[in-house]
Amino acid sequence: MAEQQTLKDLVRELAEQRGLDLRGYKPTTLERRLRRRMQQLGITSYSNYLDYIRHTPSENNELLNTVLNA
Questions:
Q1: At residue 42, what are phi and psi to the nearest 5 degrees?
Q2: What is 2-68's CATH topology?
Q3: Are 20 and 60 in contact, with CB atoms under 8 Å apart?
Q4: Whole-model pTM?
């Protein structure tokens, strides 16, 4: 349950702070696509991925490519 909340936090921060609004996607679809990108980076938790995004501005584009091209 804590991991699910972190997914919501991640999606909210992407929308509010990074201008990448993914809230229109079905939760299962979004989770699958986020996990795919995280796997490519070797990141295993949403909280770690959120930290990565905060410190890597170019990740917005990479994540968007993963989500849109899935």
A1: 75, 25
A2: Chemotaxis Receptor Methyltransferase Cher; domain 1 (1.10.155)
A3: yes
A4: 0.82
